[in-house]
Amino acid sequence: MNRIAALIVAVSTLLSRAAADEIRRAFIPGAILGTWAETAEQCATKDKSDVVIESAKYGDGNGTCTVRWAVETPGARGVNYAVHALCTSAKDQSKTQIVNIIIRPQGNDHALMGRSFADLKTYQRCPAE
Description:
- The protein has helices at residues 2-20, 40-45, and strands at 23-25, 34-37, 51-53, 57-60, 63-75, 78-89, 96-105, 110-114, 121-125.
- By secondary structure, it is of the alpha+beta class.
- The chain starts with a helix and ends with a strand.
C-alpha cells in the first residue's frame, strides 16, 4: 500500500512540474511582435502574405485574428508559442474560424511559423518603419 501511495505522489509531482513549465497568457509576448515576411523583398513591397503580429491580434491579407490566448512552452530548441485565436476573413467579415498557430523564434529577427510543426515556414522580421 505504501508503494502505491509513493508512486501516486511521484507521478503527481512530475505532472505538476510539466504543467508549471507552460505559461498561458492573454496576449502574444513582445519578443515576437512586428511585421514578418518570408523574404526581404516581401518586406519591401508590403506583400499581402506578410504577417503583422500585435499583442492582441495578428493577421495578413487573408484576414485578422483576435488572440484568445497564447501558451509559451520550453522546447529542446528554445521557446515555442502556441496562439489560439478567432480569425475573421478579409473577404467576408461574417466568416470566422478558430485558428491555432505555432511560432518558434530562431533568434531576434527570424522565426518558424505555421499551423502545425509539420508545416512551419521560415519568416524574418521586417525593419520597423
